[in-house]
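Shipment paperwork, digital attachment
Item: protein structure file
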Amino acid sequence: MEVELTYVFSLLVVIGLLYRWLNKNQHYFRDKPIPSLPFKPLIGNTGPLLFKRVSLPEFIKPLYDKCAGSKILGFFDTNIPMYMLRDPELIKQIGVKDFDHFTDHRPVFGKNHAEDSDALFPKTLFSLTDHKWRSMRATISPAFTGSKMRQMFDLVLECCESMVQFYQNEIGTQMGREYEMKDVFSRFTNDVIATSAFGLRVDSSKNRDNEFYAQGKKMMRFNRLSVALRIVACRLMPTVVRPFGLDIIDQEQRNYFSSLIRDAVKQRETQGIVRPDMINLLMQARKGLLQHQKESEQNEGFATVEESEVGKARISKQMTEIEMIAQCFIFFLAGFDTVSTCLTFLMYELTVNRAVQDKLYGEIMETHQSLNGKSLSYDAVQKMKYMDMVVSEALRMWPPIAAIDRLCVRDYELVDADGLRFTIKNGAGIWLPIYGLHHDPKYYPSPEKFIPERFSDENKSNVNLGAYLPFGIGPRNCIGSRFALMEVKAIVYYMLKNFTFERTANTEVPLSLKKGSGTIADKGVFVEFRPRLPSASGVLNVD
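Attachment content:
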């Protein structure tokens, strides 16, 4: 009997401690001069998203609209208090001016997990913190300048030409053929990453089950239960699970892609092979040979984010092999899904907005003729103003990353021009609701309409840069914005020059989004590729 009572007492103590932990922050916002959502035990305010009742954009927009007129909203992500910033000026203040207080992302795998394990994801630029992040950013930032993109452009063009040739051959003499855009562009972005980041040529449109694509698809399944459990375990019990080296990437994919990189590096070093790709640039960076150089100013697109002084700093640190491999991984993770998502929704908008499609085709043909038979060049892409307007508007309407976060790394006294004043404590989470800002009629009249002219030379100066964040903001913005925009514009040029994009019976208008996920079309985006008629000279419009 005494043993049973001890057991019951111990169980009650555990339950009490668990209850206390789950509810420890329920009064967090009580003394803050900002509106906040009521605390809900265990799930906080993210229940609709956790239980897959809404998509991420559908979760963000009502939350964003709930406190119209306020600059900040307090809410809970499970039991973790978060500050959602709604004001562009406050976003610029925290994201740029006072960046030193908000240098990190919220940890995925627990504090300092990267320092004492063989896991790759914690060693990526996205996950590194404080001085480790600063050092890595400065080390690899020179690999993403305009001059380096120009050197890598031909690799992207090879993938574009291969893709167009595949669909021309498959459609043949048919009037047209229907395709699902996420599948089409996931295969394209996979091929671009394979050649530019891993030094490997694959054709995923033709060879649909190639190992590189298959392994990449497995690695991108972040919604699987095993990944969710790893993240929860690392956040709740970081000290206990740290020795196990948990990673968001499964061992099979880690071994496969790591071997590719190691083999490529070994072959290049032993045979003196030089190829204008990311492996070559990271090999230079690993030896400390890659430094920022002053470049001539050029227009590389409205959405392009500029590198801060953090990225331009001169450093002497040399990367380890595993750090170099980790950066190739993050290049894959960032480029595979976000770029294909952008292209999927861009293709949708061009299909349902025929006037925009026709106008863009006109600019493409003008560019084609100006090349006088030469292949498309990086500089020619940068001169296409309407192309940039279309891509910029697609990124506004359908930002691939619907929200981004920051972590307060030391107490911050928030003071704004309107007298709002309180302290954001070290460890608090900051949330930037990109989708909400991009769909706010205060900044974008008729936000649900696709209007590329918002980004014309006459109008783009009116865009509040604190309310346009497709690649983030401040020193911790997306390092690969130039590469992503180059890739998107190049394939749109080639595809639209050779096909018209037509609605089919399966083209859903308006689109519904997948519940419990990011920005993903629930039923897919189906479009017909219809070959363009021969020109007056009797040849198709191909380079």
